[in-house]
Amino acid sequence: MQATLTQPVVLDLAALKTRQQAAWSSGDYAVVGTTLQIVGETLCEAMDLRAGSTVLDVAAGNGNASLAAARRWCDVTATDYVPDLLQKAHLRAVAEGMTIRTETADAENLPYADGAFDAVISTFGVMFTPDQEKAAAELVRVCKPGGRIGLANWTPSGFIGQVFKVIGSHVPPPAGAPSPALWGTPARLETLFGAEGEVRIAERTFAFRYRSPAHWLDVFRTWYGPVLKAFGALPAEGQAALAADLLALVGRANVADDGTVVIPSDYLEVVVIRR
After folding, report:
1. pLDDT digits (tens, 9 = 90+) for 23-53
2. Residue 1: pLDDT above 90?
3. Residue 19, class by beta-carbon neighbours within 10 Å (0-12 exposed, 13-18 middle, 19+ buried)?
4. Virtual torsion, Cα 14, 165, 172, 121, nearest 10 deg
5. DSSP states of 27-66 as a string?
6. pLDDT tens across 85-117, in order?
7. pLDDT of 106-164, one tens digit each?
8. Which residue of 30, 138, 152, 234 pairs with 123 in a disulfide if CB–CB is 3.0 to 4.6 A?
9. Antiparallel, parallel or unpaired: β 261-274 and 117-123
10. Of 221, 178, 203, whose CA–CA distance to 17 is shortest?
């Protein structure tokens, strides 16, 4: 019998990026993102940001980390590849009497000079880039020697990591696509940044709080792009099955006993001291 050779999977990173951009442009991530503000605040404290520092927020979304840095009197530039989210970040800054720059930019190809910033930050953003090595290299490149890179990344075993696992069981990702949750593992972070600086990692927990399990599902299904797109890719029966599996996950993770939702979600708070 003649052996059959298996052809290696060639991942089209450009196509994957287009697909991801469409997902994050759908719905309105700001509805969920605004609830995560405390993560940006604690990350800026962990980075020990100083007034007057130049800070770049990569994959900034609606500006949680940008606003946190601006509150510490930093000179902040917020970037994302979804202009509508940057507009929301701008409006939030104006409402609070702060100034941030907003510029549309690709995390894998940042339009800034080497060492242009004292600090580079990303909360639950850059971890979703298709080319993880290139994105990490860009963070390092634009951060000056002696500067700091700060990240907040969901872990594979935490709640959001499990949400994406459930989604993947119904709508599989492209073959060969790296899991974003790898950014939530110390080994991967050391691989990406260990040669460029000292990697400091702390385990943190954010609590999602919603009125009820049905309320959580409604918000994520309506506004959180990856969940919205997953439902849109399925027929009615598939949507019902996905909803049931997500609600089952919420039921297992929920620690509230009064009908509301309180779900602890683990993430890694990362500070890289650039050499």
Report:
1. 999 999 999 999 999 999 999 999 999 999 9
2. no
3. middle
4. -10
5. S-HHHHHGGGHHHHHHHHHHHT--TT-EEEETT-TTTHHH
6. 999 999 999 999 999 999 999 999 999 999 999
7. 999 999 999 999 999 999 999 999 999 999 999 999 999 999 999 999 999 999 999 99
8. 152
9. unpaired
10. 178
How big is the CA angle at 205 (ends 258 and 86), to the nearest 5 degrees? 100
Terminal-residue alpha carbon distance, the chain: 56
In one-letter notation, the amino acid at residue 124 is: F
**Inter-residue contact 229 to 28 (CB < 8 Å):** no
Residue in this structure with the two tokens 């719905």, named with its chain if needed: 27
- The CA distance from 49 to 69, in Å, is 7
Enter the tokens of residue 236. Answer: 């009615």
Task: Provide CB contacts within 8 A for 100, sequence distance 6+.
Answer: 63, 66, 67, 70, 76, 77, 78, 89, 90, 93
Strand locations in 72-123, DSSP E? 75-80, 101-104, 117-123
Does the pTM exceed 0.70?
yes
Amino acid at 233: A
Q: What are phi and psi of 127, to 5 degrees?
A: -60, -15
Helix (H) / strand (E) containing 201: strand 197-210
Cα(273)–Cα(275) distance, rounded to whole angstroms? 6
| Residue given tokens 């060492």 in the structure block | 115
